[in-house]
Amino acid sequence: MPPWKVGQISVKLGGLTPAPTAPLSPLGSPPPPNPAFAEIRAAVEARDFARAGELAERALAAGLEHPVVLNLAALKCETEERFDDAVALLERAVALAPDDVAARNALGLCLTRLERYPEALAQFDRVVATAPDFAGAHSARGGALEAIGRLTDAGSAFRRAIALQPDNLGALSGLANLMSRRGAHAEARVMAMQVLAAQPDFPDAVNVLAAADLAEGAAPAAQARLEALIADPRLNAQQRALAQGLLGDVLDAQDKVPEAFTAYAACNMGLWRAYAKSFGGKPGALDFAQAMIARLDEIPTAAWRGAGEPLPSGVKGHVFLLGFWRSGTTLLEQVLASHPDVEALEERDTLATATRAYLSSPDDLHRLAEAGESELTPLREAYWARVRDEGADVRGKVFVDKHPLNTLRLPLIARLFPDAKILFARRDPRDVVLSCYRRRFAMSGPAYQLLTLPGAAGYYDAAMQIAERMAPALAAQTHVVRHEALISDFDRVVGEVCGFLGLGWTDAMREFAARTQDRGIATPSAAQLAGGLSAEGVGQWRRYRQQMAPALPKLAAWVERFGYDAQ
């Protein structure tokens, strides 16, 4: 086990910070009178966890089923990277002893390794409710919250862990990473240095320091840190890829374009291989989108024109902000969120229930087009319930639901919310695709498409084709916001958006950058937005023209249609 796995064995077995009211003994509940258990206890007390795991596995085979035995056998599975087997064992342990904090915490950690973050969070919530002084569970809970994009809550969880245990390296590293993502590099550096003083070469902390070096103009120092980290054989595929992607940014800042692209390609190929089992099969997200296009061609435009629906009591307006990743949706959302009459929600799956009902398969589009009000009304209710559950207070506000990939859900939006307004963020397609290729997104089916330039260009093309086919039905309620114009003529463009949404102008929208850190932005744009408006990303594709050659033919038609300079 690599040395940067901060006390993972003791965390899994509950041994880091016992709660006074709920002791977290590594051996959990009282042992049965069994010689095998006594032998296991001796191995645990000797810190020989490898032997304890082997003994636990034998004991299970002999019929000794006890939460501690299951926990230790699961630990052995995890060291062998058999995480699904570990989860199965720990679920049995939790079923036997629902209040066994050690087993439940271990289950949460294994679910985290499988990137089943909502399920992991549910386990950590139970752990901290039972043992509120268990720092390790608060730290792990922070990691799960960060993974699902609840950054403000993640920061609170990390801070709680640090308050309970000031030298909790997992929490310090997690909080440092959050600060780095928000552009608070000086604060992040202090915490990362504290982690590295205790455990040199801890990957996340090295990345935080490299990002701070880069922000402070010390790109060669950042490059040296990252190249040393990447060469470390102990890194797993995701850790190495993250470091390679950041190295690409560092090399790009030094205008070493070919070297930067090589680093980005190494990052993406590492992730492509690591996630091939989960997302590389057929049909993938691009296949799904292309099949949607074929179905939309079979359905008349009139089918998407709804009769209208009342807003929930007290809601002044309803807006979907969409486009494509890296098209400027986050900037526009932050600007609008600065308006006192706006409540904005960033990239939450508010349409999840409707998607399951009418967009699980492209063939569902025919059923959606024909659905009656008795079928659609419960889905609208589920949508607004999800909005409330995500913490949005829409009373007396214009509600802005921002999710770039809701472009692929425009048929749902058209049927469910025919009166909702749509803000469509548009940016030079070449800059969009290059930026998608260079950024590191939380992995999903759509994000997997972005790991190759042809895949990213293909997915962008499919999303724009869906938008184009839905445009006749939605044109009257759609306003396109050109990202480059927003950067160059902020007041005019934002004023037009306000007029479209029925909002008055307020100078507070010019101050959006000052509020960025408070809102806990989960997208890769967070650190950039903290610095305010910047034209730095405009036309970046030209620097990578040679490297982008595989994607340019697919994008050419959209470049022309949207009125961008072909050169």
Describe what this molecule looks like in 3D.
The chain has helices spanning 8-12, 35-45, 49-61, 67-79, 83-96, 101-113, 117-130, 135-147, 151-164, 169-181, 185-198, 203-215, 219-230, 237-253, 257-274, 276-279, 285-296, 329-337, 352-358, 364-370, 373-389, 410-416, 429-438, 445-449, 453-474, 483-488, 490-501, 512-519, 526-530, 552-561; strands at residues 317-322, 342-346, 398-402, 421-426, 478-482. It is mainly alpha-helical. The protein has 2 domains: 8-166, Alpha Horseshoe (Serine Threonine Protein Phosphatase 5, Tetratricopeptide repeat); 285-561, Rossmann fold (3-Layer(aba) Sandwich), CATH 3.40.50.300. Strands 2-3-1-4-5 form a 5-stranded parallel β-sheet. The chain is globular. The model is unreliable at 1-27 (pLDDT under 50).
List the helices and strands and how they pair.
Blueprint: H1 8-12, H2 35-45, H3 49-61, H4 67-79, H5 83-96, H6 101-113, H7 117-130, H8 135-147, H9 151-164, H10 169-181, H11 185-198, H12 203-215, H13 219-230, H14 237-253, H15 257-274, H16 276-279, H17 285-296, E1 317-322, H18 329-337, E2 342-346, H19 352-358, H20 364-370, H21 373-389, E3 398-402, H22 410-416, E4 421-426, H23 429-438, H24 445-449, H25 453-474, E5 478-482, H26 483-488, H27 490-501, H28 512-519, H29 526-530, H30 552-561
Parallel strand pairs: 1-3, 1-4, 2-3, 4-5
